[in-house]
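[step 3/7] fold_predict: job queued, chain A
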Amino acid sequence: MFSFFKKSAKEDAPPEELRVEGNSAGEKAVEEKPLSWGERLRQGLAKTRENLNSKLSGLFGGGKIDEELYEELETVLLTADVGVSATQALLDDLRNRVRRQGLTEASQMQEALHDALVDMIAVLEKPLDIGTHKPFVIMLAGVNGAGKTTTIGKLAKHFQEQGKSVLLAAGDTFRAAAREQLQTWGERNNVTVISQEGNDAAAVIYDAIQAAHARGIDIVLADTAGRLPTQLHLMEELKKIKRVIAKAEASAPHEVLLVLDANTGQNALAQVKAFDGALGLTGLVLSKLDGTAKGGVIAAIAKTQPVPVRFIGVGERIDDLRPFVAKEFADAMFK
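[step 4/7] structure written:
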């Protein structure tokens, strides 16, 4: 039996960034100023930046540009999970910039490296256009624990802020906790969640699309159960879900997103390749950037598996997800 959950709006406790504090003498409480997105992104990439800068500061602190410097830089980039192919491409680009700009001092190279990274990852910066269909159906996939359900809640909030109506499909039918988690996000965002007890994820999502048509909903966000690329029967199930979505809406799914945990580093490339082969990915969401020293994997993705990064997530709060912007990302890694 299908269940339709329409959560009424209600006041939530104020988020952490808006909590007020006063002293015991009753002094006037002062609101803490919330961090800007750039500050949160920089905070989220702090470990990546510290890892890079602690090593680059020694390299770029002084001295002449020579072959030994390039070799040491190669080691630094590899330890930041940039990957072999992307590291070589960055070094080749850097050599060209050094020649063109007539650079001679190691201290001049960091800005050139930053610019080379921006150019490399710019291929991933392709904002999602949700105005092409109604309802616009977004199917999400990923390995267990990548953060799909949380990402769906954040995406719902993001689209609502654009004035769009959203419906959530609880397609992770393997875990009751996943349905409950999605219902919690639905309550927080005051949106409808369509769920079903049982194990037919495709039927849940099919019904959600039908409901979206009937209600004039702008966007359907379809959750799916986490699975490893090596679980071939579960990958086949994903293909089935995609086929059933097309039966509900001939042009759908309009977006197939893979949610990647940034902490997995180079393993993210294998995930992109496997899920792309099974589903034909249209975009990525890079989650859990907070606390990882492996943000350099985005360069590896750009070089070897350039599926657009639609969104990046830097924390647990509902607004800690934004569209990917190459220069913002590189700035947060280096500056």
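[step 5/7] annotate
The CA atoms of residues 115 and 193 lie 44 Å apart.
The chain is about 45% helix and 15% strand.
exit 0
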